[in-house]
Automatic annotation (TrEMBL):
This is Ribosomal RNA small subunit methyltransferase H. NCBIfam families: 16S rRNA (cytosine(1402)-N(4))-methyltransferase RsmH. It comes from Roseburia faecis. It is found in: Cytoplasm. Specifically methylates the N4 position of cytidine in position 1402 (C1402) of 16S rRNA.
Length: 321
């Protein structure tokens, strides 16, 4: 199956990157290479490093970027390892970083990957990196009821999390839950019919929760943001596209903290904690898809782009307020 992925907020991201023809840029979620292709078109003597953990994405992006092979290096890894990837390539600092978080259209539209609740006969997989042994099936069948409740509540933000977890545990006592269809039926049984009629697909939030837990998506994002900002040259920018509130909240909070890290009491006239700003938040409000993009790609409706610019030798954090 062809790897398809609509590059959400493409023009807006490229505009915000402020690409230098001789700069070094990292696409930490390479996917099908849509954003990277546009970056390459702006480079002359510059370089692009593409990182992705999905073998299908690596193959697709390699083909898509073949005309720019002289300026592209593709590495199969998680963007959590970005600093090590760059170090191995002899690169200390870069001029821009992009992350397009979430699931690609290819992953959603390929039933055997097990990401989508719209298929009724797919294995419960959801691994972004197939080298990983743990799958969604393992979570569904092996997690305790309390653990299932926690992830569905916290990562799926589903108000019926407790009942869904209870129904899953009851069902697997009869036989292991193997397919998306079996899990869908269990979730339907846990949510009132009147809610299902008006609230969209009943499985959407649970699948999101399992996927996030399995791939450690929020942990990786939370633990890597500071490092990525430190990898930027003076004036370099990091552009992050999120698709749900949990991701966006992490990015927004981190960017704000890196702009104003001061921990001094508000009544102190000057900063004495010594923590200095690493730069500035470029997007006070997130950049959203245009009406045209929303019409062309319904999956972009929840996308938000936030941008941070590195400023070396910045003002003390109190002054940055």
């Amino acid at each position: 199956m062809e790897f398809k992925h609509y590059s959400v907020l493409l023009n807006e991201t490229i505009e915000q990157l402020h690409i230098r023809p001789d700069g070094i840029y990292v696409d930490g979620t390479l996917g099908g290479g849509g954003h990277s292709l546009e970056i390459c078109r702006h480079l002359t003597t510059g370089r692009l490093i593409g990182i992705d953990q999905d073998a299908d994405a690596i193959a697709a992006a390699t083909e898509r970027l073949k005309d720019y092979a002289d300026r592209v290096t593709i590495v199969r890894s998680n963007y959590a390892q970005m600093a090590d990837v760059l170090k191995n390539l002899g690169i200390e600092k870069v001029d821009g970083i992009i992350l397009d978080l979430g699931v690609s259209s290819f992953q959603l539209d390929t039933p055997e990957r097990g990401f989508t609740y719209r298929s009724e006969d797919a294995p419960l997989d959801m691994r972004m990196d197939k080298r990983q042994r743990l799958t969604a099936r393992d979570i569904v069948n092996d997690y305790s009821e309390a653990e299932l409740f926690r992830i569905i509540r916290d990562y799926g933000e589903d108000r019926f999390a407790k009942n869904i977890a209870k129904h899953i545990v009851q069902a697997r006592k009869e036989k292991p839950i193997e397919t998306t269809g079996e899990l869908n039926a269990i979730i339907r049984g846990a949510i009132p019919m009147k809610v299902q009629v008006t609230g969209g697909h009943p499985s959407k939030r649970t699948y999101q929760a399992i996927r996030i837990e399995l791939n450690h998506e929020l942990d990786v994002l939370r633990d890597t943001l500071d490092t990525m900002i430190d990898l930027l040259n003076d004036g370099g920018r990091i552009c992050i596209i999120t698709f749900h509130s949990l991701e966006d909240r992490i990015v927004k909070s981190n960017f704000k903290k890196n702009e104003n890290p001061c921990t001094c009491p508000s009544n102190f006239p000057v900063c004495v904690c010594g923590k200095k700003s690493k730069g500035r938040v470029v997007t006070r409000k997130p950049v959203l898809p245009s009406e045209k993009e929303l019409e062309e790609n319904s999956r972009s409706k929840s996308a938000k782009l936030r941008v941070f610019e590195r400023v070396e030798d910045g003002m003390e954090s109190r002054e940055a307020l």
